[in-house]
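Chapter review. Work through the record for NADH-ubiquinone oxidoreductase chain 2 before attempting the end-of-chapter questions.
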Amino acid sequence: MKLNTSKMMFIYVIFMTTLISLSSNNWLTIWIMMETALFMLIPLMSKNKINDQSMKYFIIQSTSSYILIFSILWNSLNETNLNSLMTLISLMIKIGMPPFHTWKPMMMSNLGWTECLILSTLIKIPPMVLINSLIDLKMLILPLTMTLMVGSISGINQLNLKKLMAYSSIFNLTWMTSSFLLSKKISLTFMIIYSMLNLKTMFFFKLNNLIYTNQMMHMPLKMKLVMNLNLLSISGLPPLSGFFPKWIILNELIKISIILPSIMVITSVISMFVYIQVNSFSFSNFYVKKKNNKIFWMKNLSAINLIILIAVINLWVY
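Structure tokens for NADH-ubiquinone oxidoreductase chain 2:
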């Protein structure tokens, strides 16, 4: 099909812009790559015609690009350092970092799983490279802490799986930014493992046509196990594969600062609790059918969540 061929071409160009931005040292080249990725993602969002989501995304991204160019030109004219608040704000808007994150869950809830995957992984890398090259760690501590808080707490009681993955993406922004600030080897390790876990999870959701958590009730036990292990791996539960890159980041980051790694561990436990809620919902909750009016009602076994949370804290501590 013609649409499938063009779709593959757009994804390939986005992938190439990510690789070029990773290998470039020039901010102008990275900015061009960001704009190229933006124009490649809009047709994927809009499919056959322009819709609300593609227009919203274009307006948000173009506004952040204007602010970025203006801040760089302003700093160049005044011969000051590019490490400015305006530059940071523009890049925060571009990747959906709190407090400029509200567009991301809203937009991802109305997109397909393929577009959600690209928005959660490849699109975030060029702005991350710019943050690494332009912004100092001291200026980043407050936004990164806010990102951890918002990403972990907002996912609680979230029934929409696309919004849940959006908040998971926001939460992992801090880990990704920290990995880029430490070294390129650590950042590539984290990005590859995180992208593969997201690919597996979102492809699973797409294959089974899942949008809400209550749809997992009728799945076979084997499929539930696969999905729940993927989700827990994204959250960084030891000894799953998602834990090891986070462990490496914590080991390196604790040499620079003690505050940020401590908040990372605490919010990771909250993030795990969110995924454990999804797990207990799919495994432990049950429906009871009333004989008279045939209404289904749900009994939530929240005590199980608390017991598992204590076990998770023990795993983190010991």
